[in-house]
Design brief:
With about 350 residues, the protein is an alpha+beta fold. It has 2 domains: about 150 residues, 3-Layer(aba) Sandwich (Aminopeptidase), CATH 3.40.630; about 130 residues, Gcn5-related N-acetyltransferase (GNAT) (Aminopeptidase, 3-Layer(aba) Sandwich). The protein is built from 12 helices and 12 strands. Strands 1-2-3-4-5-12-6-11-10-9-8-7 form a 12-stranded mixed beta sheet, with helices on both faces. Helix 2 runs antiparallel to helix 7 and helix 5 crosses helix 9.
């Protein structure tokens, strides 16, 4: 019979065991790793724990859990916090059930009325629901070279990419403070224009520092000024462009098109064979944009637990109650939005 306990994340041998287990699982993601949970928790002032399922001394399952607390959005256990993947990782049904039950016990102990799993199989039991209608993911193999990559892009989008390739852009890849500052300025501007608050600077710095050489920033400059930038993670042969965006000038310059082409080139040079374009909400502009690049949409399922009598947490910007707030946020000066935004965004989870 499997047993469940909290991981000892201060033990190097335990961490190595967990990393090896995640890497060996077909459904493993970088968002299951302790380094992701610790980086995002430190960057946003939250707390991170991990539950392990064992049988006869062998690790057979785990679930990473971020305790997210926010005066605006409430409290929740999220797996994984600030990630698009996570959830219970186990091929053993009995272990998965025990991990789910232990997560519920932890949520009750911490006073969290909600558990949000960013992936994993449906969970049976009181309070659990399943939704695979809201989000879709986009992943495809990288082509063998630049010419093949261009041909893999549908004709209409390919024409925009060709125009972007003709522009005199400067491409910069880095991991230092200057690269992070450039990224934060561009990304902060991008999300302000979308009407959402930017995450704290420290979040990006923690991810870069803790993932070390497995994360970096790629920026596209025009006239010496960055107009598009993306922070990416590289794991198990896949590049994950995670936090990316462009300034108001980027669209006319097609800087985002250049950014993703250059990231594909850069990832291929690093030995990556797949490109994970991340998740998008069904029926949105970002989902359509990714389809235009030749990526097929795959439904993503999310189990959620809600305590008796509690309302499910919904921090999505598509929630109608945030419509007026989003419209007002878009009008804020970027400097103001980038100072106030992190105080809000760190509680999104």
């Amino acid at each position: 019979m499997p047993t469940v306990r909290q991981a000892r994340l201060d033990d190097a041998a335990e961490r190595a065991r967990i990393a090896a287990f995640v890497a060996a699982q077909p459904d493993g993601t970088p968002f299951h790793l302790p380094v992701w949970g610790e980086a995002t928790a430190a960057g946003c002032g939250q707390r991170f724990r991990m539950l392990l399922a064992e049988a006869d001394g062998d690790l057979i399952g785990l679930v990473p859990l971020t305790h997210v607390r926010s005066p605006l959005f409430g409290a929740a256990l999220v797996s994984s916090g600030f990630g698009v993947g996570g959830g219970i990782l186990s091929a053993d049904p009995a272990a998965a059930r025990l991990l789910a039950a232990a997560a519920v016990d932890m949520a009750r102990e911490l006073g969290c009325p909600t558990i949000e799993m960013r992936g994993g199989a449906p969970v049976e039991g009181d309070g659990w629901t399943w939704d695979d209608t809201r989000y879709v993911g986009f992943v495809r193999p990288l082509a063998v070279d630049d010419d093949a990559e261009l041909l893999a892009i549908p004709r209409k989008q390919r024409a925009d990419v060709r125009k972007a390739l003709a522009e005199p852009f400067e491409i910069a890849v880095g991991r230092d403070r200057a690269a992070l500052a450039e990224h934060f300025r561009v990304y902060g501007t991008s999300v302000r224009n979308l009407g959402t608050p930017v995450f704290p600077r420290r979040l990006f710095a923690e991810v870069i520092a803790r993932f070390s050489e497995d994360a970096d920033v790629l920026s596209v400059r025009h006239g010496g000024v960055a107009v598009a930038s993306v922070l990416s993670i590289y794991w198990r042969g896949t590049v994950y462009p995670y936090w990316g965006g462009g300034t108001a000038a980027a669209r006319g310059l097609r800087a985002n098109e250049r950014m993703y082409v250059e990231l594909m080139r850069h990832a291929r040079r690093r030995g990556c064979t797949a490109f994970d374009f991340g998740r998008s909400k069904v029926g949105t502009g970002p989902a359509a944009y990714k389809k235009n690049w030749g990526f097929a949409a795959v439904p993503l399922g999310y189990p959620t637990w809600t305590a008796d009598g509690a309302a499910p947490r919904d921090a999505s910007p598509l929630n109608p109650k945030y419509r007026l707030k989003i419209a007002a946020w878009r009008k804020l000066p970027v400097a103001v939005a980038n100072r106030v935004g992190p105080l809000i965004a760190k509680g999104l989870g």
